[in-house]
Amino acid sequence: MTNNVINTAVNKKSPFAVFYAEKLNVINVGVSRDTQLTDIDQLAMLAINEMLVSTSALLHKYLLQLGLEEVDINEIRASLAKLSGAGYLTKMEFASPAGKSLNKVYSLAAKGQMFVKSKGKHPMLSGYVDGLDATAVKRLLSSLQFILSQNYISKATTISMASIVAERGNCNAKENDHIFRPNATIQFKNKTVFVESVRRTFAGEDDLLRKLKRIDNCLKHSKYLNTEIHETVEIVIICEDFDHMLSVISAVKASKDRVCFDLAFTNDPDVYNQPENCIHPYKPRKTVWEKILAVVSRIVG
Predict the structure, then answer these.
(1) Sign of the CA dihedral 254, 216, 195, 54?
(2) Smallest Cα–Cα separation from 45: which of 7, 99, 105, 89?
(3) pTM
């Protein structure tokens, strides 16, 4: 599936911005041959299994945050080249009429999944990853960049990429009303954070608003969910750049739907350039009735 997008080569501001008629092409399916796996090779495959997709730079940051301080980016690149050439990884690139991306993307191939199983791990969402288009992959990469920028690998209790959150036990729920798949679910001791990356496509903002409504439906019935949800819930929305973020915030403000969770916004360039100050909490404007109730509550109190 190819999304209609607004970006051209002139106004692209993020490495994970989407282009018109962009596709994700496999450029090296690899040949299955025996390869002696180094420690770095094995760690790379186990990490990519958790990340679902990765670039060499993101994988390097991921391994550094796991405590492998001696890992060099050139070692990572050499390992990825070897693993993709040996059929453990699938290597992909983004291509559009504007040209080809410098970023190469890697995911586990069948041989890599077999290796993960041999280590007692479960291959994560392999069928799901195989069916992703260019926009969906860039949303995951944008989310990973945010997670790594905040050092959540060491700070969070658990992190899961693109796992489904669904309601159980409500037979009257309309299909898809009580199910959603965030780009990432991050669990802290007393807080649950869902990460949602929105790209600058013609349907991007509408899709986000519909998804926020589904998340709200789920959280209002959280005792039925297949995922533990803490009392404090925040949705972090990642946009392509600052102007795009303002546009998305305006769309959220204009929406009539009110949600039961905290919202925060950021954008790819801020995440990369100023990670310590990249998150902008969103405070929705109160309705007239909410203002009246607040005044009455203070008087009565």
Answers:
(1) negative
(2) 89
(3) 0.88
